[in-house]
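thought: fold this chain, then report.
action: predict
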Amino acid sequence: MNHYTVPNRNGLHSKGHLIKVTGEGTIHLQPDTASVNLGIITEMKELLAAQQQNSKDVAKVIEALRKLGIPANLIQTSDYRIETEYDYDQGKQLFRGYKINHLLQVKIEDLSLIGKVVDTAVQNGVNFVSNIQFSLKDKDSFYLQALNLALNNATEKAKTIASNLNVTLIPTPSTVVEAGSTAQPIPFQAEALMKGTSSTPIEPGQVKISAVIAAEFHFYSNI
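observation:
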């Protein structure tokens, strides 16, 4: 939390005659980047065979994504797990085999490729798709815009209160506290993906960036 202290017009920090308000600012923007998790899950009885098959399938998926124009540095492993699987028969634990989960996180800077990336990945062996999210590369500059809106909102609230109280507001706040910020990417529900379609329709929607401040304004009586 950031805290700013600003003197009043007389250079003083009077502790009395305060109006305390919060201000909120929100902007909605079209996203310019996306990310998606693509998983290759392999199940076999032999661990070495499962590892070899999984590595082969992952390499095939990466090659296909590279052919679509996705740079290598935007494709990375986000999770790799080997699990032992069992069946249960009349209370007895029976070894079934091994399950290998290799999860790739793919960042996409050309949003027109999102549907094609998902379709291509599935066609080349991906059997798990999740967590498609849209975001902005330059969130900080947009957050500053939301912060400015929040300050304006707080000022308007203070002016309204001062007007109703019939007092004169000192328009420069004596303190401003940055209370919170959010940049919410829009998730896409994985269950909406349809294997076998010519192009999976994925709409990016908008990204919401919000800022909240708390501010204190001095005022003096008109009497």
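thought: worth noting. The chain has a mean pLDDT of 85.
final: tokens above.
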